[in-house]
Amino acid sequence: MVVLHVYIALRWRARLRGVLGRSPEILDAGLLIAPCRAVHTCFMRRALDVVFLDDKDRVVGCVSGLAPWRFAWKAGTRRVLELRAGRIHELGIGPGARIETVVLNEL
Predict the structure, then answer these.
(1) Does residue 17 sit in helix, strand or coil?
(2) Which of 23, 70, 71, 94 matches a 20 to 30 Å C-alpha distance to 45?
């Protein structure tokens, strides 16, 4: 199990915006987008790591270093965690892992 302090995007506009134009500290902690089944990196300047979670916060897939202007999705996803590029490897996150989140703030 991996425990992460995250910011959470629950409202439509916050989910659409994701991490675009937000403080780098949000990506260091992580941005949990719920509900969400897919993400994009349109208008972004940097790659990011994406973790796809099911309804029990188990990892159903990961994308490391999703480049700008790309889309990603995984079947069975209910929530998505966006992280700074490289964090998936640093945290040892992989399919089947359970993520426990501690919400720092809602965006």
Answers:
(1) helix
(2) 94
Return the closest-CA partner of residue 42 out of 14, 64, 72, 13: 72
Its pTM stands at 0.91
Q: What is the pLDDT of residues 22-64, one digit of tens each?
A: 777 777 889 999 999 999 999 888 899 999 999 999 999 999 9
Burial tier of 85 (Cβ tally within 10 Å: 0-12, 13-18, 19+): middle
Task: List strands edge to edge, sheet with 31-33.
Answer: 59-66, 48-53, 79-84, 31-33, 2-9, 99-106
